[in-house]
């Protein structure tokens, strides 16, 4: 039990470390998606995902991004932990760039497609 709590703490500490340098990067983006709640909740999302990328399943050591599963949700829902997915910046790009990645392992390609479908969900 104690150990569980400790590793949880370490993961969160690592999250803070990973998340800090992202700030300047998102400055120019949509303020609805990158508000205070986003910065607060992404650490929880990272912890929930156990430090792994929701697209490829590998651990994220750096260049972490958080994908908004349904970016069309209203301001008060869009940054809920349930709408954030920890992803590598590279994997995040693949979700959004619309390119064909069917040469990747099927399980990864399917996840990319599933996230793309959800991008078009109504608000
Ligand atoms: Zn990944
Ligand atoms: Zn995204």
From TrEMBL:
It comes from Pelotomaculum schinkii. The keyword Transferase does not apply. This is HNH endonuclease. GO terms for molecular function: endonuclease activity; nucleic acid binding; zinc ion binding. Keywords: Endonuclease, Hydrolase, Nuclease. InterPro entries: HNH, HNH_nuc. Residues 40-93 form the HNH nuclease domain. It comes from the Bacteria. The keyword Acyltransferase does not apply.
